[in-house]
Amino acid sequence: MTIIPQRRKQRFLCDEMLRKLGHWLRAAGYDTVIAVQGTRDRDLLQQAIAEDRLLITRDQKLTEYREAPGVVLLLHSNDIHDCARELRHILNIDWFYKPFSRCLLCNTELIPADPVCIEQVPRQSRATITTLFCCPHCEKLYWQGSHVRRLSKMFRQWMDG
Ligand SMILES: [Zn+2]
Known about the structure:
Strand order of the largest sheet: 2-1-3-4
Strand content: 5-15%
Structural class: alpha/beta
Bound molecules: zinc ion
Largest sheet: 4 strands, parallel
Order of helices and strands: EHEHEEHEHEEH
Radius of gyration: 17 Å
Helix content: 25-40%
Number of strands: 7
Distance between the termini: 20 Å
């Protein structure tokens, strides 16, 4: 098993196969980049090194490069939920680190949205919204809705399991 010191900076680069896991890491508040489709292995490694990120993969091949030690984290689980649990065990990932503080699309930290943005929220959702955030980069709006409840429930299971 790969042992990564826990004090290591927790910034990640997920390979294409782990796109979903990457989105969940963002939802938990971790600075996570997802590999652009078709990026070559060597370029992925270079990106991880240049951006000081841990490259998370299930691809054994990536561990065979000279640069891999300390840069590549190989997950052994096949099921994506088990991968999430594996991350918690290996890296001490806290799935409630900074919940819903990053844009799921582009990884930018969210900021409170201008109250007038409520106009862009579907009418049936407006009444229950207490806080509205937006991404300063891609301008996507975020609010506490059913997806947040669903993800929170999932995160809870990973923390307990
Ligand atoms: Zn964004």
